[in-house]
Amino acid sequence: MRTLSKFAEKWEKTEISGIKGTLRPQQSLRSRLQFAVRKIELQSQAIEGTTNRLKERDRSLFSKVVDAYSKHDTKRANAYANELAEIRKTVNFMMDAKLALERVVLRLSTVTQVGNVASAIAPAMKVLQGVRTGIAGILPNAEQELGMVSELLDGIMIEAGQTTGIGFDFEAPSEDAAKIINEAAIVAEQRTKEKFPELPTLKAPEEHIEDADYRNP
Predict the structure, then answer these.
(1) pTM of the model
(2) Torsions phi, psi of 15, nearest 5?
């Protein structure tokens, strides 16, 4: 009971001890977790902004594919189509990443007691690592921000364990992390199919498109 009481105190209260504590109080575990959640939400918004810009590029390229194909310029049409395919791969990943972050936020927002600290934070950290790896070359600033969030969550996990005397296994929740990612991937794939039109089949030059338009996402 004493360890749980001590955890509850650190969970709710801001610590002020010594000169450093007076100048820079140690925020409660709850406050630090809420701060981490806000940081994740900001990076999710950054990913959404990049995704929207890529969708605009997608629309432009799709029009060029249709135009080139209607003029029987299959070489140019294929070049545009290849570029478009790469953009759609990136968009799909970005949508996947955003959905994964949304699920992480949802899980972290449920942490209210020591019993679910490990079950929520440990898989969340694994998901963040996966997202960071994927966006490193696309959004380096977001990658760095998520790295700092991971360090913050790591500190919360360690401090929670020290406070309660409970040792947390960081490897155990890997199945939960995989579930978060898989759920996000399924939804992202479905949304991609709904938002993007199929490319015309680039075969014989005599074939052409009679009527092609781009559906708004």
Answers:
(1) 0.69
(2) -95, 135
